[in-house]
Design brief:
It comes from Streblomastix strix. The chain is mainly alpha-helical. Helices cover about 70% and strands about 0% of the residues. It has 35 helices and no strands. Helix 4 crosses helix 7 and helix 11 runs parallel beside helix 13. The longest helix has 24 residues.
Length: about 600
């Protein structure tokens, strides 16, 4: 998603509102002048907001009354005088915009009477953009309420006859995109609410199920989400899971892809659908032992077979989400599969997909392993395959710095030996199956709308280069991005993982110049002052790694960048955990020794 262009940032929304308020009256020539003026405004708004992340600009436009005036025009003008431009201008004020801004647009003036009126337009493109705008605003209502609550816009839609109109459009349209979107948006409208019209309930649920394997990524993702919304009501839920056997899913997933192209497609469609339904069943959590029973029935192997054999463009995120839920109850099976080298190849194949949601979920699976590895390292698990560490040099230095030889028992040295078998396996498999190349492609691709996907790709690249030089062509960019991640306001997990990664990269002197380059003082300060003690601990580890593995020049730069008073304060704020406090004290003594 593109960012706002600074040259196009300044827009006089008050002037735009005044132009939109001009009454559509006069002779034909005067009306044409008005239409041309307003058409110019529509085009400016489209250029300003289409596919642009500009929350501040959208907020200013909505607060100034731009959306309100667009709605007034759509509501009052003859349909023949309404062009596609005006509905696009309104649509792009809602998407890609924050949910709270879409809700604000709705609160300033209810747009539904105008929008549902526009569904009678003879232009199919106008109808498509109109239904898309309706769906976007409905999602704004969902996004500003609690997860279990009904859509707060339902009554407004009902009062203007929108329920019947959108379902009628679903029944009569011959346009597949419009049909799919109306079904999805009815799912949004009836979130956690029973569809009392049984014909509507059955036909909408049936259609949503049929498009969970659609070729279009947005349709796949949002049809599954719409089914989930509907399932939050018991009556809808019964209809959704009618005849569904969760244990039959295992056999469905293990079914070989045989037959002609259409038969293979049907087999894969069924696999995707049963996973959508199983995920809904698991989210309901009516059977507390269902996860354990599925694990005992060997669903892990079935899911890995799905990851291995399903065509890439047919893989959806639901099976990955199921796998994540099963991980904690299937640790023994998963560890055995890793030993047999039957785990990572199938997981890493997911990274070849172009589905952004799937990539995000796949990253979580890898992050789960990395987090587990980090926890093991924090518990001082020795690494039989770690790179050799010169204990004597470190011991001598520790003695000179403050005679803290006790630190050598199980602490800093084992921290420097965090490269365990699991990490070696991950790197080997990433390289063998093209995972590293895919991660670099994702990192360098600016089109991903989900910021977390790019951040996870960068973190994964870093994790794969623990104590190893990052390739020259990407090193500066990767390290610079990782240094920004611990900043306040970022995702908490991203802050923690990036803190681990930057300290791991510091175990290779060849990464040091880029780590201690411009911005390093801010990076180390963000780490040490983070309210998460695990992150601040990684800040200590980063500084120590730079001091231990670094040159004299690096040591001096670390000494200048690390705020000694902050580290001293940490020794008082920590839970007096021997591991944490001694690490902080070692850093203090080392910095003083360099003075």
């Amino acid at each position: 998603m593109a960012q706002p262009d600074s040259q196009n940032d300044v827009v006089d929304y008050e002037s735009i509102v005044q132009i939109l308020k001009i009454p559509y009256i006069g002779n034909e020539n005067e009306k044409k002048i008005i239409l041309d003026q307003q058409e110019d405004v529509y085009q400016k708004l489209i250029l300003k907001f289409k596919d642009i992340d500009d929350d501040e600009g959208r907020l200013k436009a909505i607060e100034a009354g731009v959306a309100e005036e667009l709605t007034n025009i759509i509501e009052s003008r003859d349909l023949t005088s309404i062009t596609i431009s005006i509905i696009e201008a309104l649509e792009y004020l809602t998407y890609p915009g924050l949910f709270k801004q879409r809700q604000l647009l709705y609160e300033k003036k209810n747009p539904y009477p105008a929008l549902f009126r526009l569904l009678d337009h003879q232009n199919t493109d106008v109808v498509l953009h109109t239904i898309t705008t309706i769906g976007s605003i409905l999602q704004g209502g969902i996004g500003t309420t609690k997860e279990s609550e009904q859509n707060p816009h339902f009554q407004s839609v009902e009062e203007c006859g929108g329920k019947q109109k959108i379902f009628s459009l679903f029944q009569t349209t011959s346009d597949k995109v419009i049909k799919d979107k109306t079904a999805i948006f009815i799912g949004r409208l009836y979130k956690a609410r029973a569809i009392l019209d049984k014909d509507m309930q059955q036909s909408i649920i049936s259609h949503l199920k049929s498009i969970t394997s659609d070729a279009d990524e947005w349709t796949r993702r949002n049809s599954a989400l719409a089914i989930n919304y509907l399932s939050q009501n018991e009556d809808n839920y019964i209809e959704i899971v009618k005849g569904f056997d969760p244990f039959a899913v295992i056999q469905d997933l293990l079914q070989p892809l045989i037959g002609n192209e259409e038969e293979r497609k049907q087999i894969q469609n069924k696999k995707n659908l049963v996973c959508v339904l199983l995920l809904i069943l698991l989210d309901k959590a009516e059977d507390n032992n269902l996860l354990e029973r599925l694990t005992e029935a060997r669903i892990i192997e079935a899911l890995l077979y799905y990851f291995e054999t399903q065509e890439l463009n047919m893989i959806v995120s639901s099976p990955v989400k199921i796998f994540k839920q099963l991980q904690s109850s299937a640790l023994t099976q998963i560890e055995q599969l890793k030993k047999e080298k039957k785990f990572y190849p199938n997981i890493l194949r997911l990274f070849r997909s172009s589905d952004t949601e799937l990539l995000s979920q796949a990253y979580d699976l890898i992050a789960y392993d990395f987090a587990a590895g980090a926890d093991l390292a924090k518990d001082n698990s020795p690494n039989p395959n770690g790179q050799s560490i010169e204990h004597l040099n470190l011991k001598d230095l520790a003695q000179v710095a403050g005679n803290h030889t006790e630190i050598l028992k199980d602490n800093f040295i084992t921290k420097a030996q965090q490269l365990n078998k699991q990490e070696i396996q991950i790197r080997d498999f990433f390289e063998k199956y093209g995972g590293l190349k895919k991660l670099i492609q994702i990192f360098q691709n600016s089109s991903y709308q989900n910021k977390l996907i790019v951040q996870y790709s960068i973190i994964s690249i870093g994790l794969l280069h623990k104590a190893v030089k990052i390739p020259d062509e990407i090193r500066i960019a990767v390290i610079d991005e990782i240094k920004q991640m611990p900043q306040p306001g970022n995702d908490k997990e991203i802050q923690y993982l990036s803190a681990i990664v930057i300290s791991m990269l510091a175990e290779s002197e060849e990464n040091h110049n880029d780590i201690i380059a411009e911005g390093f003082p801010n990076t180390i300060l963000s780490l040490l002052t983070c309210d998460d003690p695990k992150v601040s601990y990684q800040g200590l580890t980063l500084a120590l790694n730079l001091l231990y593995f670094g040159s004299d020049s690096t040591k001096q730069k670390v000494k200048q960048a690390v705020p000694l008073n902050v580290v001293c304060q940490l020794t008082h704020e920590m839970d007096q955990n021997d591991d944490d406090v001694m690490t902080a004290q070692l850093l203090i003594d080392w910095l003083l020794f360099l003075s």
